[in-house]
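Budget justification note: compute hours in this period were largely spent on complex prediction jobs such as the one shown. Inputs:
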Amino acid sequence: MNPQEHLYYYLAVSAALFMLGMVGVLIRRNAIIVFLCIELMLNAVNLSLVAFSSYLNDPTGTMLVFFVMCVAAAEAVVGLAIIIAMFRNRESVNISDINIFKW
Amino acid sequence: MVNEILFWLLAAFALLGGIGLITSRSPIYCVLYAIVSFFCLAGLFLTLGAEFLAVIQIIVYAGAIMVLFLFVIMLLNLSEEDMEARDMTTGRAFAYILGLVFLAELLYAFGSFPELGIAYTGPFTGKVEPLGEQLLTQYLFPFEMISVVLLAALMGAMAIAKKHKA
Amino acid sequence: MNNAVLSLIIILPFLGALTIGLLGFISKAFRAQEKLIGLMATLAVAIPFGILVSVFAGYHAGGGASGSVNFVLFDWMTTANLHLHFGYMLDELSLLMGLIVTGIGALIHIYSISYMHGDSGFYKYFLYLNLFIFSMLNLILGDNLIVTFLGWEGVGACSYFLIGFWFTDMEKAKAAQKAFVANRVGDFAFLVAIFLIFFNVGSLNYADILASSSVFASNGDLAFWVALLVFIAATGKSAQIPLYVWLPDAMAGPTPVSALIHAATMVTSGIFLISRLSGAVFIHAPEVLMVVGVVGALTALMAALIAITQNDIKKVLAYSTVSQLGFMFMALGAGAFSTAIFHVMTHAFFKACLFLGSGSVIHAMDHTHAVDDPQDIRTMGGLGRFMRSTALTFWISTIAIAGIPPLAGFFSKDEILAKNFAAGYMGGETVYFFVWGVGVLTALLTAFYMTRVTTLTFNGQPRFPLEGHHPHESPALMTIPLWILAILAVVGGFLGLPEIIQHGHLNWISHHWLANESGYPVHNVHHEHLSVAIEAILIALSVIIAASGMLLSYRLYSSRNIAGDERVKRVFGKLYPVMSGKFFVDEFYNVFLIRPFVAFSRFIIMPIDKYVVDGIVNGTAGTVNILGSAFKLFQTGIIKHYALLMIMGVMGFLAYLLF
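Corresponding output:
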């Protein structure tokens, strides 16, 4: 494989994973799973960043991935806390039950 | 050649993990599939030369975050009723079609990348030492900021999740 | 002296205003600390005065642009062809003005501590006063037109705040508004003049403008218009026809404010500005100078005629100020810019003293609780026996303003008249004879009405009930500034000895300080010297005029008291009602400017405001309402739908980018 083809395949895998995460967000009703799917999307993006970073021999992409991971960790903690709080109030983690985003 | 085989193998398992994640009914299985996917991603990072990130991926994602997910799922002790049905409704079909269109768009976009004529300047070694040096020089301020973000998340999570007295 | 110390001149008054304002705003306890507030505010003015004195002591006059002491606070903006900075220039002119402003300002701050005692807005008063000093210093010390303009607007705003200081009284609030609007007319002309100068010179720095005075010398039309616009700006700030109407009403403010802003400093900024631009612009616009002189003369005469008929002690002083400002413009008109500045200085001394004295009187009259209006001279009389310091200083200043030698007013006023006579006699322009004649007549009237008000206030028998509280002398905090100003009013004139003594070589202001050669900031129009004989005759005439005016008035009013006005009425005949009606200028403006404007506004309201403006406003709200009810359908409250819409949006956007 030449480097360009190489890059293309990595990007393709990244796109496919992103698509899977996205579909997951749309079709799953369990809030925890939806959340996992978002993590998958983040990882897919990370893959494309690393691929570009490698292709261009530029550590900036890697740095960005590092920060994305940190933010993802923070997000997971807060998100799961919200899910716990939600479960405590409604005895459910089904996001179809949550329709209070309207006044 | 070995690298190529490794790539296809890891890519295939990563995608399989993803498919498992969005299709399996039990939340526990979902998490396990996700771990598979994230592991394979770590492998893909390795094939790209990003050693440091690969290690971080396993420790943070496959390790810490996934354990947190498992822990929450078990803590909530979801019953059988929370299992989701897998029947194909119109909504789901629409979501799948949407996903496929989106994938096609992305692939088309990536396919046009060679036309930009950006030259390959690799290979790349994401070893710990140069990255660490950069992190504490050029990226020192974001690095400090991200620690504040983590601290805020920590305290926020405690504030949100603790039991409020009625 | 280094930059940091010099910067204090500008920064301290601002800092004073800021701290007093903030502390007063947040802390009730601070507001009650009158002594502390007064001390802070006074120091914020007195320290800059000290710095200016030390700069003044070490200053060598005549060094030109390189001789001046410059300092820059910070750069403001830099573009390809405009470089603006908050730069300040201490040269002969700005030093003199700065000393007057900070020196008299400090005295008036001290006076105000006692005068404003117990007022609920005490801290606000000193906040405005410091802010005024800050703006005024920007106006006179700024080394470019923009800083001057900012100061110009700043003093206008402070004047507005202080005239309307007791804004719960509708009349006073209206007076403030009137002052503000009248000033705006002048400000607009100033702004246009700045644009014209920048367009033609390419710089706003005074040094650059002076260096490119050839631009104005070669282009008479340009010089004419710039000079005229600057003059219009000056008529607003310095209360000349046609914009003087605000100044008499400005007496609604506290009396020390009238002394500082509406007599000694702010109203002279128009004269300062014209002198500042004298070398570059005004000496190349002789037609405008004639207009300046004539307008000044007419203003002086008109205000003096009105002043004779007024019974409010502050109103008399206000019209007297307008009249004296007219004298300054007469000097400007004759091209004797340094003489105008000389009169600015002497006038600042005796008029500040007069206003502060009137404040002391009002204070005392108010204290008796016996009269309705503590400012009405008809109910005063005989106050001299109760308040000796006030009476003495008031009389000294009256003699000074009337022009009796060797007090300050004589020297400056005589020099103004002599310069105008010289411009007519040597320069050959008959119009200056007219200005001179009006000036002589006004000098007579000045002596008359000032003696009238002083006699009616302090001499004769009290015309207010003597039972109950007696009026008493004001505390030392008020009388000490009075005495300092009175002494200055006595000796201030020796800075400008007349030409008859050694051909003016002993005239410090015009000859050694501001002078009239290149290298000095002020450029006078040169005329041949008058012969010694003519000089002597002119001086004798001045003295006779002043003395006879005073004597006439004193004899009339000390024997008949207020009834002396009957004689004046008979002398002026049908003119008297016009004079006491202030020439009906306010009524004229009301009928011909304000009412048509209001009517026009009313006419505009119906079709344009109601249908076009309101239509746009209501239409915007209506459109948003309709769109909102349409988009409301998307707001299901279910997260998935939001996610779906977001993804579709991203896809659409991507598709747009790709195809």
